[in-house]
Write a structure and sequence with these properties.
alpha+beta
Length: 143
């Protein structure tokens, strides 16, 4: 029996792997799904392969799942920082290989057992790198 909830969970798991391994969003539909279907057809039979074929892994779905996962991680970090008594942020502006200015923002805060460190932002700076431009990028009160 086909379980839609399981297919959605599997889709999220694949999206997590795609994001973690920095692969293109199309890899789910172009490689992962066909490979999983072929393996299951050979090893488990046509019925299981048909179920795996129902797992949504299009590039659009993977992109949406990664966005949902990223928002969830963001909310977890914000919640942890709010619970922490102390935190520090570090801003770094650097120029990438194509001569574009990039702003990176990291945060360190007291976790439950140890100091946690998370990347909050990595974003290009448009045209200028003045203090106000940096401030506007990291002004999370607008978000």
């Amino acid at each position: 029996m086909f379980d839609q909830r399981s297919a959605v969970i599997a889709s999220f798991e694949v999206a997590w792997l795609v994001a973690r391994n920095k692969k293109p969003h199309t890899i789910g539909e172009d490689l992962i799904k066909p490979a999983a279907v072929k393996i299951s057809d050979i090893m488990c039979g046509h019925k299981v392969a048909k179920q795996l074929n129902a797992v949504p892994l299009s590039a659009r779905v993977i992109k949406e799942r990664i966005s949902i996962l990223a928002e969830n991680v963001r909310e977890q970090v914000i919640s942890s920082v709010k619970k922490s008594k102390e935190f520090a942020i570090q801003l770094n502006e650097t120029t990438d290989v194509s001569s574009n200015s990039q702003l990176m923002v990291k945060i360190r805060y007291g976790g439950s057992d140890e100091i946690e460190e998370e990347m909050l932002l990595c974003s290009p700076l448009d045209l200028r790198t003045r203090g106000i431009d940096v401030f506007n990028k990291v002004d999370f009160s607008k978000a």
